[in-house]
Amino acid sequence: MLGNAVSVIVRVLVLDFYQKYATLFITVGGIAMGFIRGQDHIMLGQLFVQSPILLTIPCCLWLLYGFLALQANRECLQRPENEFLFALRIVPRSKQFLVIVVSQLVQLLPTLVYAIFLLTIALQQGQVTSLILLALAIPTLTLLSTFLLYRSIMIMVEADQSRVVKWLNRKVTRPSSLFFVEWIFRQQYMAVVAVKTVSILLLFGILALYQTDSSDGRLLGMAISISAGIHLNYVYEAHRFHNFHFSFLRGLPLHVFKQQYQLLISFMLLVLPEIGMLVQCYTINISVLDILACTTLLFSNIILFDGWLYTKERNSNEQSRFIFFFAMTEVVLILFHVPVVALTIANGVIGTLIKTKYYYLFEYTAKK
Fold it and tell me: For a Cys-Cys bond, which of 34, 47, 183, 348 suits 300, CB 3.0-4.6 Å?
């Protein structure tokens, strides 16, 4: 019985989590295994364990990962088809906790693997302080995520809005371009924070290289392609939002270019930190034209992917595969000296033409 309960929770909650963020995992894994050598991983691990302050960086990322998993689990539990998971309450209390612990160990597996890697390095280096911190951090994260998931399954709490939020909803009128931004932050705030963290760290590392080395804009262009690939999942969410939750917008007399403008305004707010980093980097060894080209490339990728989604209804697995192969293809093209400006123009024109052709022909039939 215990094994069956663990298997059910892993299949429903854990696999759904990994599928939902497959693009993020593939992108991070591609960077870690494709662009960073094994020796560099060891040097980075040694840097972490030699300083307790620097060790807080992976610990904070693990904590962010845990809250990201918790939010995904809560969203999954709210679906009507998963209500049977609440039947776990009839299992003896001692086994309830054990089932959730095992499922959380599977869900937190990436953090556990890297923690073991750092523990091994700390043992080799004789860093007692880092060993103690790591020995405390991982059990704490596991027990915290287990307790919160246990509480989500065993205790049903009705969400309530504070008086401040209710007052803002009555008094503040949002422009239509803010509808999706507010919705995505309310529904997936931890996922947005995780994506922004990975994207900002990626750009920060790439821009740091330009401070010491003189290079062309290809490296920045490849980083922008990967960053755009991470954000394209939210283009899918925006597509779902506008065609399911706010489907009446399709009946409004808005030209496709007006809709594109509102979409770009929404994503300009989402990628505002990245734009700020690019604006500030004009003082280092990057030309202004390269910065402008890379910035517009980010938005042209959004336009192209948005148009592609209107060709036919897609599920999350299909869009994850497309995002991965599209981002990797664009990285290879930039690596082989295809101008970023040419990619920007091609993506923008093709995406707009596709959306113009298929927008009113598209029919969204998904129920969730």
Answer: 348
Q: What is the pTM of this model?
A: 0.64
Using one digit for the tens of pLDDT, what is the confidence trace for 335-368?
A: 888 888 999 999 999 998 998 888 878 876 655 4
DSSP state of 252: S
Q: How far is CA 190 from CA 71, 113, 232, 339, in A?
A: 7, 22, 17, 35
Cβ atoms of 206 and 295 within 8 Å: the answer is: no
| CB 166 within 8 Å of CB 191 | no
Identify the residue whose tokens are 């992108």. 27
Cα 298 from Cα 326, distance rounded (Å): 13
Could you report the per-residue pLDDT of 173-200, keeping only the tens digit for each?
A: 777 778 888 888 877 777 788 788 888 8
Length of the chain: 368
* pLDDT 10s digits, 79-110: 777 777 777 777 777 777 788 888 888 888 88
How far does CA 272 lie from the centroid of its chain?
A: 16
What are the start-end ranges of the H helices in the chain? 2-9, 15-20, 22-30, 38-50, 52-77, 93-107, 109-125, 128-154, 163-171, 179-187, 189-210, 218-240, 256-270, 272-280, 288-309, 316-335, 340-358
Rounded Cα distance, 304 and 344, in Å: 10
Q: Are 326 and 229 in contact (CB under 8 A)?
A: yes
Q: 55, 48 in Cβ contact below 8 A?
A: yes
Residue 258: predicted pLDDT:
78
49/116 Cα distance (integer angstroms): 12
Mean pLDDT over 239-253 rounds to 74
| Cβ atoms within 10 Å, residue 191 | 22
More confident residue, 49 or 317: 49
DSSP 126-173: T-HHHHHHHHHHHHHHHHHHHHHHHHHHH--------HHHHHHHHHPP
Q: Measure CA 357 to chain center.
A: 30
User: Is there a contact between 105 and 69 (Cβ–Cβ < 8 Å)?
Assistant: no
3-state secondary structure (DSSP) of residue 224 = helix
